[in-house]
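re: ur question from yesterday

yeah so i grabbed the chain u mentioned. its 298 aa long if i counted rite. heres the sequnce exactly as i have it in my notes:
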Amino acid sequence: MSLDELCVLLARHARDDAATAIEDLLIGREEADVPPPPSMAGTRMTLIAQGAKRLAYGEHVYDYRAGQYLVASIATPLTCRFTDATPQRPVLGLCLLLRSVEVAELMLQAAPGTVPDDNDIAPPAIAFSDASGELIEAAVRLVRLLDRPRDRDILAPLIKREILWRLITSEHGATVRQIGLADPRLSPIAKAVQWIRQNYREPFQVQHLAELIGMSPSAFYRNFRAVTRTTPIQYQKKIRLHEARLLLAANPKDVATIGYLVGYDSPSQFSREYRRLFGAPPSQDASGFAPRTPDDNG
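ran it thru and got these structure tokens back, copy pasting raw so excuse formatting
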């Protein structure tokens, strides 16, 4: 998979209106160095596969070329111009619209520590970066689906989700994560998630947590499941068990104590739920965390 294959696919599927059969995916082709009319595009990722583009935002001018991408966290007035564009070698690129609800879901479903904590400095509304190999490969697989109608409806959402995850965890992920904050469900559910993460050792009742964030129990439960794809209690269990695994990596022989430290009163329940999530009981899983010496085999 490479930019070369992506260029072939984009050239084949580019239309005058940029639309495709995959929701939120646009494909652009430009054969002349002419400025398109100013746009007010929404939150999106734009990846250049061939050629280059010059973009003016406020007082700044940016150039990005093949293998680079732009992410925008808000609808911003942009003026751009294609460069290095000819009929023989047009500018080719794709645009994936980014939905706040999808960003919010991924942020809240992520295991602890997998999404960086954003600092107090607001990220830029527009950011540019070199595309990783993983991002380009995912883009190629997504555009390939335009030739595979049977697979498209099932696989396209999964690949778009992968692309979004690559963006969220990239060097400019803070800009993408800002998109999720626009989702109306995220603020109260994020507050609940933060409370669970800070108090994961303590038992709680869903009704009390719903009251804490100002929602009815039924609305809270429904929205929590919609965003995290799990219940508040199950979410707490995952937090406990992920924390236990981190502690076991540092103290692989202290299984019983670690179970208590993360909130389990019953060692058997701790072992049972740990095995259900990670595929092995904590004592067996912990054996793989022991540091190796130069004399170890394997």
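noticed a couple things. Strands lie at 25-30, 44-50, 52-57, 60-65, 68-72, 79-83, 91-97, 126-130. also Residues 108 and 194 are 10 Å apart (CA to CA).
anyway ttyl
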